[in-house]
Amino acid sequence: MTSRDRSAHAADPVQDLVDAVRLYRDAESSMRSQSRDSMHLGRTDMTALRVMLRAGQAGRPLSAAALSRELGISTAATTVLVDRLEQSGHAERRRSATDGRVIEVWPTAATEREVRATMGTMHERMMQIASALPPEDSRTIHRFLVALGRAMTELDFPATGTAGTATPSPSAGPASP
Question: Residue 68 to residues 49, 63, 73, 89: CA-CA distances in angstroms?
Answer without folding.
Answer: 12, 9, 5, 20
